[in-house]
Amino acid sequence: MDAYLLAVGIIVLIYALLAIGLNLQYGETGLINFGHVAFFALGAYASALLSLRGWPLVVTFSVAAVVAALAALPLGLAALRLREDYLAIVTLGFSETLRLVLQQEAWLTQGVQGLPGIPKLFGALGRGTSDLAIFLALAACVGLAAWATLLLKRSPFGRLLRAIRDNEAAVIALGKDPARCKIQVFMFGAALAGVAGAFYAHFLTFISPEQFVPLVTFYVWMSIILGGVGSVRGALAGTLLLVAFLEGSRFLRDLVPGIAEVQMASVRLAVVGLAIILFVLYRPQGLFGKRDV
Length: 293
Fold this sequence. Notes:
The protein is an all-alpha fold. The chain has one domain (2-213). It has 13 helices and no strands. The relative contact order is 0.18.
């Protein structure tokens, strides 16, 4: 049971890192990114492939962040020319295109068979101890990302981002350059997703394209909506709440007798969906969001 709770805690922290990046892009700047999972996948595959070739993990994690950030650059440039709804479609299309590339380019990624044998982070410490070390390293990384985001929010640059989100035309009229800000934020959020992907790959030690479907992005969206858009603590609390819904519903079969395993999967999804709908209905601003007045 302790190993299970530790594994769930690691997944919560990985999703929290994804949520902080997406919350910065959308909550602070208004960039609608429906392809966040693509940068997650890029980070995971970049770190995994390099580590399998003998690169030190410290270097592969750095490369994962850089590769994800550079991949976000053309999408950041696209954000300058597209309205919010079109940007959402472009980013979603990018994530699905990347997933298809990962499936088809078997010479590099082994396609649908996936990449086994990825070196485990802190693997020399033994299984139980290595998971605890991963949890602590992830907690430190999430804490650092949250602290950096809070500093950014309170800085003049953070106030400029919120002005771009609320009224970009007024920002341009004041002589500011929203283009650079959008690109920087998009790349920073992608870099956080890349680091999260590297942690994911070196925790599970196996990755395949089927693990990086659009549902992952929408789980992250649920997290920031539940916690409160634009709030760092909301992103963290929303992630914890979402994973609690998803994992807690696994035990419904013990409470509802007479339901087969296959049927239980549908019931589980229905319960999770109902819980989220009720939450959004009665607390639409999220746990830490501001109420409309």
